[in-house]
From TrEMBL:
Organism the protein comes from: Nostocoides japonicum T1-X7
A GO molecular-function descriptor: oxidoreductase activity
Protein name per UniProt: Putative Quinone oxidoreductase-like protein
InterPro entries assigned to the protein according to its UniProt record, in alphabetical order: GroES-like_sf, NAD(P)-bd_dom_sf, Zn-ADH-like_protein
Superkingdom: Bacteria
Length: 319
């Protein structure tokens, strides 16, 4: 069968022939893959930089997707760490890590949206207990996950959402997706603008980390009116750098808790338990998804651009 194949970490995958996958466990089924998202997590899997990488090559990339099972049902699935990923005509799915989708849902939209939407959905429902009426700041709101976070916060009843990002066009679009206030992260007045807009939020959903996070944390804590009020900062992504110099004063001067949310800090059963409700929300069209389907044979051509494009590329084996 055909698949995307990574043979070295410093080059995009090739469109290649690989062996058919084999079901070995009692819960395994082979699915025909209809759509697989090219998420940042897939890029880091394929360049060996993700914290779960094992240096095992060659590998078929892809961590999740939508496929048709042997009974003809559509399933969204999340793969365990594997070298037999979803960017192939077929893959092996443990049905316990999958959810049956409505027949009429759009596989490309679901494949594009689940990973970025899960980042905030799970963080807010499983890593912390977000309550309707709480307010939030999304740092890095212009990426796919950040755009979803703004919408997820609204679905979960946020009283107000501040969106911070660099791309002005995508920041403007966030007004119609639920962001009350937009703040440029790369402007001369970012510090004062963040302080004015977000100093009193209850929760920060952070996709940025690195230097912008250290600066944002100082701004929020310094300008906070009631420093005794809980502030929960959830580290979800690190597009600006893996390390942030957190000022000690920020932790002492405010009731600030920093937590992370991802594979490991939320258990696999907890993640899987959230799949059906999130799949419902996406299938019902309650989240705006920005997807670009690309045939599997063109995977190598779009790989490098995937870090730069605003939309989520979705690899479609059948196209
Ligand atoms: N923990 C989890 O469960 C989980 C799940 C999904 C994703 N993630 C992580 O979340 C992050 C975002 O994922 P995504 O799907 O939204 O990626 P994406 O769609 O590629 O968006 C990334 C965005 O990051 C922004 N960015 C890049 N460098 C930046 C910098 N130096 N300062 C500020 N913003 C910067 C860019 O926005 P501008 O154009 O505005 O600069 C870009 O649009 C990634 O680190 C990903 O691995 C985590």
């Amino acid at each position: 069968m055909k698949a995307a194949l990574v043979t070295r970490y410093d080059a995009p995958p090739a469109y290649a022939d690989v062996e058919e996958p084999r079901a070995t466990g009692p819960h395994d089924v082979i699915v025909d893959v209809l759509a697989a998202g090219l998420h940042p997590r897939v890029l880091s899997q394929a360049d060996g930089s993700h914290y779960t990488s094992t240096a095992e090559l060659p590998l078929v990339p892809g961590i999740d997707g939508v496929g048709r099972d042997p009974e003809g049902r559509l399933r969204f699935f999340v793969l365990d760490d594997t070298t037999q990923g979803s960017m192939a005509e077929r893959t092996v799915v443990d049905v316990r890590r999958s959810v049956v989708l409505p027949d009429d849902c759009d596989p490309v939209a679901v494949a594009a949206a689940m990973n970025p939407a899960m980042s905030s959905w799970i963080a807010l429902r499983r890593r912390i207990a977000f309550h309707p009426g709480q307010s939030a700041l999304v740092l890095g709101a212009t990426g796919n996950a950040g755009r979803m976070a703004v919408q997820v916060l609204r679905l979960l009843g946020a009283s107000s959402v501040v969106a911070a990002g660099r791309d002005e066009g995508r920041l403007t679009e966030l007004a119609s997706l639920g962001a009350d206030v937009r703040v440029r992260l790369d402007a001369p007045d970012t510090r004062s603008a963040l302080g004015a807009a977000a100093a009193d939020v209850d929760v920060v959903v952070d996709y940025v980390w690195g230097e912008p996070t250290a600066a944002a944390m100082t701004a929020v804590v310094t300008d906070r009116v009631d420093r005794g009020r809980d502030l929960t900062w959830i580290e979800v992504g690190s597009v600006a750098g893996p390390v942030a110099a957190i000022p000690s004063a920020a932790l002492r001067a405010a009731r600030l808790s920093i937590v992370g949310s991802g594979q490991g800090s939320v258990s696999t059963p907890d993640i899987v338990a959230e799949l059906p409700s999130l799949a419902d929300v996406i299938s019902e069209g309650r989240l705006t998804v920005d997807a670009r389907p690309v045939p599997l044979r063109e995977v190598g051509d779009v790989w490098t651009d995937a870090r730069r494009t605003g939309h989520r590329i979705v690899v479609v084996p059948g196209a």
